[in-house]
Amino acid sequence: MLGQRIATAVVLLIVLGLAMSVATPWPFLALLALATGCAGWEWLRLTLPRPGAAVLGGVLLGLASLALAALWLQAPAAAASQWASAIMFRGVVPLAVALWILVAIPTVVRGRADVAPASAGLSLFAVPALLAAWAVLAMLFAQRGPWFVLSLLAVVWVADIAAYFAGRAFGRRKLAPRVSPGKTVEGALAGVLAVVAWIALSSQWAPTFGAALVARWGWGGALPLAAVLAALSIIGDLFESLLKRRAGRKDSSALLPGHGGVYDRIDAVLPVAPLAFILIGVAF
Hints:
Layout (H helix, E strand, L loop, with lengths): L1 H20 L4 H22 L3 H24 L4 H32 L9 H25 L1 H25 L3 E3 L3 E5 H18 L6 H39 L14 H5 L2 H12 L4
Antiparallel strand pairs: 1-2
């Protein structure tokens, strides 16, 4: 199982690296759209009673992402492109952040894993959550390049890795036993501290998210905000865990051998990316 997990991770990193390294942004945007569609199907199969509706929802989310990419790349100055950008970055992205704070956090805190999985509200939540994350990563890639995007994704990776190893070594108190019994308070604190350290370290290089966060907020604001982003990444992870427990599933799907589904891999990215975008005040 571990070997399969490592092999899948290596393949994913190679595919991501190749998509980011070519001259045109199309491969990376297409990869993002594919991930959005797959994660949409996985999310909806946890919250919708009909499998066909989940498939349709995932396909529509993927196609919507591709359509937006085509519009932005082929006619960035066109009125339709400007309207789409305004709707996405002034409407959908702030809406997604508000829903993560006002809906996801209370849902996780209540921890009602015994509730029936079918939920129209949580199904609709998938649309702004996934499209906002896609749009943010696409825009940041186009405007600031692959290293900036990788440094932002590293916020989630660092939090996850630190929480995992610290939890195994020092974890005693359960963080959310009714949602994800394996997560501990000690692991969560380690994840937050690791992200703060990552922002402090990465801010020394200009083309990084850490540098942009410090430039906008100063050290006194950037480091607490790094802690907030780390905490929100934990909420994203716990939120998906709650959806899976309600649906009686261990993984969101089996698309990625050894890792589960695409949603399992990006659950923490979904709340972090839109808030990060707002915090650094990106112009579009």
